[in-house]
Target: glutamine--fructose-6-phosphate transaminase (isomerizing)
Amino acid sequence: NKGHYEHYMQKEIHEQPESLTTTMRGRLIHRGSSKSKSVLLGGLKDHLKTIRRSRRIVFIGCGTSYNAALAARPILEELSGIPVTMEIASDLLDREGPIYREDTAVFVSQSGETADTLLALEYALDNGALCVGITNTVGSAIARNTHCGVHINAGAEIGVASTKAYTSQIVVMVMLALAIGGDTISNQTRREAIIDGLFDLPNKVREVLKLDQVMKELAKLLIAEQSLLVFGRGYNYATALEGALKVKEVALMHSEGILAGEMKHGPLALVDENLPIVVIATRDACFSKQQSVIQQLHARKGRLIVMCSKGDAATVCPNEYCRVIEVPEDVDCLQPVINVVPLQLLAYHLTVLRGFNVDQPRNLAKSVTTQ
Ligand code: UD1
Ligand code: F6R
Model:
């Protein structure tokens, strides 16, 4: 049921304040007046000790689910102090990469049925790793075959392009980082800021959704383009990959997410006055580096669209031709949840304007159950 929406993708983008609320329901604890805040993931509570003792946490997934894990990686490293590595499921299988008994392998999958992710799970089970699932589908193969896990509870996702599952996956993995990290005096302020941020996240997402018209106007401008680059780094490297994935899979426009730190190692050669480039430059520890990326792209006459924190337009824009997407600011590790929304809206509007099928992009299936 699409309600008053024209497409499932549109509905699922717009219902993110609600899906995020259900993802967090019952899992964020505000203990009375003591102001003590914590996270409770029922499916993991008996396994946290084992996870904390592991030598490495390895995220395994495909497509959007992989990108969600990439977005959560920095906060998991920071709060747990455990090395976190990333594996695209098919690549792990191609290489038969090392997985050990001392590893915690986290399988991220909206459907819980993706063939490559499922085979990687069998492989990790054979190698004796503790296997944790993060899935949206109760009773799915990944939910059943993992040792433990967390349901993201985002509600059924119908559109082939994953949108609300992505943001709920990130939120669950941020909560996972809080749960594994545990309470220490030294990280208490940081933890409280993140938990406060989680409580307020649905409101911030509601606010960023107001950019719908702005993104539609931007889509009109880009309708006939052949290609769109998206530059991000740090917490928003994943946002760049995910924004580009959305544009290519539904709008059928070539798009590439680029780690801004790699700009001079090749991508800079593409820059001219025609190719549109989105640069994500919201406030976090990478902000000044992104400002210098903008300057360098501007010096090559790059056609810039800058995503920045509210109030930063004048600070980040090198000239009057630069387009801006101003988004609400949040705690650094939650900012990717905010920043992906305008890119989801852009992909959606581009698709409709270009006359393509939004909910069932050509050649794609919602759940990839074959290799
Ligand atoms: C559970 C109930 C929820 C109830 C809540 C109340 C289910 C599915 N969930 O939620 O309805 O409101 O208790 O306390 O009945 N699991 C895996 N792999 C995965 C995902 C989950 O093994 O990929 C396991 C978990 O380890 C857990 C179980 O499935 O044993 C349920 O997980 P989850 O729904 O996340 O647990 P709760 O949030 O506690
Ligand atoms: C992109 C998309 C795919 C899936 C991928 C993994 O919008 O939907 O990239 O994310 O096929 O699917 P799950 O998460 O079901 O394992």
